[in-house]
Design brief:
The protein is mainly α. It is 68% helix and 0% strand. The chain has helices at residues 2-21, 32-36, 44-65, 76-89, 91-100, 104-112, 118-130, 132-135, 143-156.
Length: 163
């Protein structure tokens, strides 16, 4: 009896967890269960199966790989890691090009930061040059500090706040 109760509680919590994350099916969330039981989740039993399947690590995999109907808005979490890695590896070149107001590394960084069209790239590059002293307050500024300051400045800039 205790075992059955435990299993039912586990299934219910996994299904609600899947629902809370939401995505391809608002009733069961995203993951392979949503794909496997697509179109059948209007019936409670299939919704339970889909939610349970999603909750058994398939949803975690789907979210981190942006597959199985799962996505993080704009891939923000993964993009943030790419931005941090790029900034760390190319910090000296970015610092030089931000001070100069342009360059190959800064253009690539602008794209990583979400500035994909010409107008937003131009605004991004102008911002980095205008706010250089804020982005690099000392000669020992690390990439994480620069990125935090850059994100703050981008949020304060109407042309870049939505990137």
């Amino acid at each position: 009896m205790k075992k059955a109760l435990f299993v039912m509680l586990a299934v219910a919590s996994l299904a609600s967890y899947a629902k809370a994350l939401g995505a391809s099916d608002p009733n069961v969330g995203c993951g392979w269960g949503s794909d496997l039981f697509a179109g059948k989740t209007d019936k409670k039993l299939f919704a339970l199966f889909a939610g349970t399947t999603n909750g058994t690590y398939t949803q975690t995999f789907g979210i981190s790989s942006e597959t199985a109907g799962c996505s993080v808005k704009g891939g923000w979490v993964r993009n943030e890691k790419k931005q941090a890695a790029y900034a760390e590896v190319n910090l000296q070149k970015l610092s030089t090009e931000m001070a100069q107001g342009g360059g190959e590394y800064l253009n690539a960084f602008a794209s990583l930061m979400g500035a994909t069209d010409e107008a937003s790239k131009k605004a991004f590059i102008e911002l980095t040059q205008e706010k250089y002293e804020v982005l690099f307050p000392s000669a020992n500024t690390d990439s994480a500090t620069m990125l935090r300051a850059l994100r703050t400045e981008m949020l304060a800039n109407p042309k870049l706040a939505t990137l």
